[in-house]
Structures are given as structure tokens and as C-alpha cells.
Design a protein that fits this description.
CATH class of one domain in chain A: Mainly Alpha
Largest interface: A-B, 21 and 21 residues
Number of strands of chain A: 0
Order of helices and strands of chain B: HHHEHEHEHEEHEHEHEEHH
Strand content of chain B: 15-25%
CATH architecture of one domain in chain B: 3-Layer(aba) Sandwich
Largest sheet of chain A: none
Distance between the termini of chain A: 39 Å
CATH topology of one domain in chain B: D-Maltodextrin-Binding Protein, domain 2
Mean pLDDT of chain B: 85
Shape of chain B: elongated
CATH architecture of one domain in chain A: Orthogonal Bundle
Number of helices of chain A: 13
Number of strands of chain B: 9
Mean pLDDT of chain A: 87
Low-confidence stretches of chain A: none
Number of helices of chain B: 11
Radius of gyration of chain A: 23 Å
Radius of gyration of chain B: 20 Å
CATH class of one domain in chain B: Alpha Beta
Oligomer: heterodimer
Distance between the termini of chain B: 29 Å
Strand content of chain A: under 5%
CATH superfamily of one domain in chain B: Periplasmic binding protein-like II
Structural class of chain B: alpha/beta
Helix content of chain B: 40-55%
CATH topology of one domain in chain A: MetI-like fold
Chain lengths: 278, 268
């Protein structure tokens, strides 16, 4: 019996003869999908569609959304500017304490965000060991300002970018970089012309992850930046407060955030978020 | 609510017991009511209860819970503190709890009208005070000092009782305050003051007292001050109704009042 090329490839990629996934894998997978999707259905089912527009207008959602969008975008830009070189350093260089640096950099990934908020307050707050001097010398107080929102979001979200890009750099074939260097390219040129294009998909995926994490930031923000409508009250905080006063508004605000997130994923789906590139 | 009613019907119909009313019987009475039946565990003052209480009750209810546990061996009181508005939302969305103590009638009313509690009793009252860091960096002398934008002020969200009561104070004094942050509960306001991140926070007199020398209190004159009352109720769906009732009674008792008065609360 001979198999045609397509069938052989299919069997090779599925690892077996049958087209059906085995039940021990399929059932938990479906449970997983249901668990992730059902709560979102809850939002859709309970949403007060009839009054949606009026409630959204009255809840000052646009103010919170605008703040959330621009602070998380700025946080992502900062994360890119600082995080990509950091990822390169972690992936391509060796120096004593490298592993410690990597551990410290990824710490915010596992740290409860509210702890990050307290830490930021103690460092950059008005009485913080750095914030004190900013306040005394320049009259700058960071807490309770949009700057504090950006800082909290960057603190929590940047490690997502660093980890993603570092992983891609490690996986990338260094032969091309070496070839470019052999042909006379400087290290910076190699980075710009060879390394960056090679990891571009992961870079984009990392940036999206980072942006999404910043958009959803709550704990560090409310601890470090407080909450004031139009200044530091981001969408997640607005949702949290709305739940106490006007659950309908909370549902609608959540839906807006859901819509924004889905829109981002859809816009990027084929270009950058193919399975395996992250 | 529905669960409690069903249990009651089952008890009355199946075991022929009287005294299912949750609101009226004293702890002693409910201890005897279920004696000898399989339901005795739920009608004795024993086991665990969960008490949801306003953040401003943190210190006093911690003390009261310890005293209650000592007075009723075999009981464990788990306390959960937060903004009354947040706790009320938890109760109405079905959080398993036995007792709710609110820092305002409004949040308790929301719970009662949602059918989660009946017959709340007021056990304390509280008035506002300005808390400033010990060095008083904003040079705050009274409510009027908060009107300028030069003084960084932290307040509670409006829906939180401390925010609503502070708003009344400002209305009484005729000042407009532009806070730098609206915090989720009164203890968050207090912590922003103790950390020195704001120049002033409007909190309850009890919070200033509880913070000791970490903050300085600037009293608000009685003619502009506003008060809020604290209602407490055992929840209709309380998993441990008898102990919940006993805890409420303890808060309302002379022993409870003593702790509350020592913390700076006024008796209703």
C-alpha cells in the first residue's frame, strides 16, 4: 500500500492514523474551551443591550477608555525601547550575575501586581527613597498622576515582552548573524538588519501581550496611582467601582474592554499570532 | 433566602420542630429548639461563621470576635473587611457569609431589599475627622484648608459610606474639595496618609484613633460634621444561623458596646 504525499504528511503531523483526536485529550480540551468561553457568554447574556448607549455615556466610559488606551500604549512603547535591548542582553551576552538579572527581570511576571504597586509607592512615592528627591528637587510627585499609571503598567507588563523576545532570540539561528558579521557588518548593524527582522513576529506578539497586560492592569495601578476619573481611573478600575454602584454599567464597560481585546487579536491574527510563533 | 426557607420547611414538616424564625429567638432559645435532632448542629452556637464588616470596623470587630470566641468556646469567627458597598455587592451576589455589618444604612438597605437580610439593628455611629501625616506637610488646620488645590487630599469613593459622609461634611462647610484620589475604602485612605503620599485624608474619628501616632487628627467642628450609622444583621442565607444570631446579639450587648466606645464609636 502506498500513501499519497498529502496523506503521509497528514499522518506525520497528527502523529497517528486516525483523524479523530483521542478522547483523553479531546475531553479535557473541550472543558478548557468551555471554561474560558462560558464567563464571556455570561457578559453577553446579562448585558442591558437596550440601554447600552445611554448607560455607557453616563458612566464616563470614554474617559476611562481613552486613559487606558493611551497609558497602555505608552507603557508598551517604553517596554519596547527598554525591553528589547534587555532581551538581547539576556539572550546574547554572558556576564556574571546574568541568571540573577534574568530572575529579577521576570519577577513581576509572578509577583502579585498589588505588591508591585506597594513597591513602586515605596520607591517613587512622595516619601519613597527616590521619589523623595524628585519631590524635593523638582517638585515632581508621581503618585496619583497618569505617569504613575504608565509606570505601574510598564512594571507589570514589560516582562511579558522581555520573556517573549528573549525566547525568540535564543531560538533564532545565529548562523545568519555570524555570516553577516563575517561579511563585515558591525554588531549594531547585525542587530538592526539581521536579528530584529528574524525575531519580528515574536517581537510583535510580545508587544501585543505586553499591551494587553497593561490594558488589564489593576492592582499595581490602584495602589500606586490611586483612582480619579479622567486622571488615573483606568477601565479595569472603572469596572471594579461600577460593579458596586451600577452593575449594568460594569457589564457594559467589561464588554467594551472585551471588544477592544478581540479587535486587537482579530487584527493581528494572521500576521503575527499564528500558532508557534509566540 | 430560598435555601433558608427550604431548610425551614423541611425542619417543620419532617421533624415537627417549632422555632424556625431566624429573627426573633435568642441564642439560648435556639440552642434548645433544635436539641436532640439531626439539625442540632445548625442551631447551636458553635462552629464557624463569616462576618463581612465595614473597613472602619477592622480593629473593634477583631477585638469583639476574639471576645465572642472566648465567650462561646467552639466558635470561630472569620472576618472579612472592605468597603460596605463592595461587601453589600458580595452579599447580594451570593457570597457565603453569616453576618453583615455596614457603615451606612444605605448599603444595608440594598441588602435587605435584595432579600438577603431582615431586621437590621443599628449598633454604632461614627463621625468624620481629617487625618494628616504627623508633620502636617500641607499645613491643614480645618475643612477649609482642603478646598485649595495645593493640599493633596484622599477621599473614599462616593458610593463608599466614608465618601458619602465626607461629601456631607463638605456640603455643610460649603467647600469644594478636589481630591487627588478616590480610594476603595477608608483604610486605603488612611494608608495613603500614613505613607505620607497625601497631605490629608477624610476618615472616621475611629480610624484616626486606631492609627495611633502614625497620623495626626484635625477635628471637624460638630456644626459641620456629619455622622453615619452602622447597622448589623444576620443574613437570611447564613450557613450557621444560630451562631450568626449570637454574634449579632454580642455586638449589640454591653460588652460589644464597650469595645466600640473604646474605639471611638458613639452609641446610637
Amino acid at each position: 500500500m502506498t500513501l499519497d504525499a498529502r496523506e503521509r504528511q497528514r499522518r506525520a503531523s497528527t502523529g497517528g492514523a486516525s483523524r479523530r483526536p483521542p478522547a483523553p485529550l479531546l475531553v479535557p480540551a473541550l472543558v478548557g474551551v468551555a471554561f474560558l468561553v462560558v464567563p464571556l457568554l455570561g457578559l453577553l447574556v446579562r448585558a442591558p443591550w437596550g440601554d447600552a448607549w445611554r448607560i455607557l455615556r453616563e458612566s464616563q466610559a470614554s474617559e476611562a477608555l481613552r486613559l487606558s488606551l493611551w497609558t497602555s500604549s505608552v507603557a508598551t512603547v517604553i517596554a519596547l525601547v527598554v525591553g528589547v535591548p534587555l532581551a538581547w542582553l539576556l539572550a546574547r551576552s554572558s556576564f556574571p550575575g546574568l541568571r540573577l538579572v534574568r530572575a529579577l527581570v521576570t519577577l513581576p511576571l509572578v509577583l502579585p501586581p498589588v505588591v508591585g504597586g506597594v513597591a513602586l509607592l515605596l520607591a517613587f512615592g512622595r516619601n519613597g527613597f527616590l521619589g523623595r528627591w524628585l519631590d524635593e528637587w523638582f517638585g515632581l510627585t508621581i503618585p496619583f498622576s497618569p505617569v504613575a499609571v504608565v509606570m505601574a503598567e510598564t512594571f507589570v507588563a514589560m516582562p511579558f515582552l522581555v520573556v517573549t523576545v528573549e525566547g525568540a532570540l535564543r531560538a533564532a539561528n545565529q548562523g545568519y548573524e555570524q555570516a553577516a558579521a563575517t561579511l563585515g557588518a558591525g554588531r549594531m548593524t547585525v542587530f538592526r538588519r539581521v536579528t530584529l527582522p528574524m525575531v519580528a513576529p515574536s517581537l510583535a506578539a510580545g508587544a501585543v501581550l505586553c499591551w494587553a497586560r497593561a490594558l488589564g492592569e489593576f492592582g499595581a495601578t490602584i495602589t500606586f496611582a490611586g483612582s480619579f476619573p479622567g486622571r488615573t481611573q483606568t477601565m479595569p478600575i472603572a469596572v471594579y467601582y461600577a460593579l458596586e454602584t451600577d452593575p449594568d454599567a460594569a457589564i457594559l464597560l467589561s464588554l467594551v474592554l472585551l471588544l477592544v481585546s478581540v479587535a486587537i487579536l482579530v487584527a493581528l491574527r494572521d500576521r503575527w499570532l499564528r500558532g508557534g510563533t509566540v | 433566602m430560598r435555601r433558608a426557607v427550604t431548610t425551614c420547611v423541611v425542619l417543620v414538616a419532617g421533624l415537627g420542630l417549632a422555632g424556625c424564625g431566624s429573627g426573633s429567638s435568642s441564642p439560648a432559645a435556639s440552642t434548645t429548639a433544635g436539641g436532640g435532632s439531626s439539625a442540632s448542629a445548625s442551631s447551636q452556637v458553635a462552629g464557624d461563621i463569616t462576618v463581612l464588616a465595614a473597613a472602619s470596623l477592622t480593629e473593634s470587630f477583631t477585638t469583639i470576635a476574639k471576645q465572642f470566641e472566648a465567650a462561646h468556646p467552639g466558635t470561630t469567627v472569620t472576618l472579612s473587611f472592605g468597603a460596605s458597598s463592595a461587601l453589600a455587592t458580595q452579599v447580594t451576589s451570593g457570597a457565603p457569609a453569616d453576618v453583615f455589618a455596614s457603615a451606612s444604612a444605605k448599603n444595608m438597605d440594598a441588602v435587605v431589599s435584595a432579600g438577603a437580610a431582615t431586621d437590621p439593628k443599628t449598633f454604632a455611629q461614627n463621625v468624620m475627622e481629617i487625618a494628616v501625616p504627623p508633620s502636617n506637610p500641607g499645613g491643614v488646620t480645618g475643612v477649609e484648608s482642603l478646598a485649595g488645590s495645593g493640599v493633596k487630599t484622599a477621599l473614599c469613593q462616593e458610593q463608599v459610606p466614608c465618601g458619602a459622609t465626607a461629601a456631607k461634611v463638605f456640603a455643610n462647610a460649603g467647600v469644594t474639595v478636589k481630591p487627588v484620589t478616590l480610594e476603595p475604602d477608608v483604610k486605603s485612605v488612611l494608608s495613603k496618609v500614613t505613607l505620607g503620599e497625601v497631605d490629608a485624608g477624610v476618615v472616621y474619628v475611629t480610624d484616626v484613633r486606631a492609627a495611633g501616632d502614625k497620623v495626626e487628627g484635625i477635628p471637624i467642628p460638630a456644626d459641620v460634621n456629619a455622622s453615619t450609622s452602622y447597622p448589623i444583621a444576620a443574613l437570611d442565607d447564613a450557613p450557621n444561623a444560630a451562631t450568626a444570631k449570637a454574634f449579632v446579639d454580642y455586638v449589640l450587648s454591653a460588652e460589644g458596646a464597650k469595645v466600640l466606645t473604646a474605639a471611638g464609636f458613639e452609641q446610637p
